[in-house]
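User: I'm curious whether this sequence folds into something compact or stays loose and floppy. Could you predict its structure so I can see for myself?
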Amino acid sequence: MSTIVLVHALGSSSRAWQPQIAALGERHQVLAPDLPGHGGEPGPFGLEPAAFAIAELIAHEPEPVHLVGISVGATVAVLAALDDPSRVASLVLSGGTAHAPGVALQRNLMRLMPTGMITALMSGMYAGGRPDLKPQAAEDLRTAGKQAFLTGLAELGALDLRPRLADLKTPTLVLCGTKDKDNRKPAEELAATLPNARLDVIPEAGHIWNLQFPDLFTAKLTESIA
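Assistant: Here's the prediction. I'll summarize afterward.
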């Protein structure tokens, strides 16, 4: 039985993977850890501690894992894979980036907002546009807190993984929704720079589209590890 490790977005939690856990759990071992400072995991959050936690998790698995990340979780997945590529059988990266200097403006705007406003503005997107999941998304955003976003965006803005991507020859599926316009170019760059990657652009999908179109996301993931 192969192992799939799911890495959630900044400000989210492992609960955001519930549709994939339910769909994949009978045929695969599915691990969906909370990143530092998220869900039930103590903080603080940082890209390197998050990547270290994922790398430690997969290091204890008997066989290489299929590593899946969404949003900042995709960047964390790349960092973990770079730590030891031999431990990763395949990568699925959705809405991720290897280089995001443009997030400085987003961070500056967020610094001025109270936590309640951040939660109100972002909970819809983090619920994949689904009203039934909005309370869960809002709770996860409040748990992570404003500081996790400020730290994560600052570190993301300073990060440039592009010089290292040529060393990561792991089979990779890069995903991006047509409505996730801010991440389209970063997704194209990831797919073009990783030696063994292909890009799949998903019509009508937004940023957290594993919740928006859960069956389609699961199907794309399943196809990539077949």
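Summary: The two ends are 12 Å apart (CA to CA). The first strand starts at residue 3 and ends at 7.
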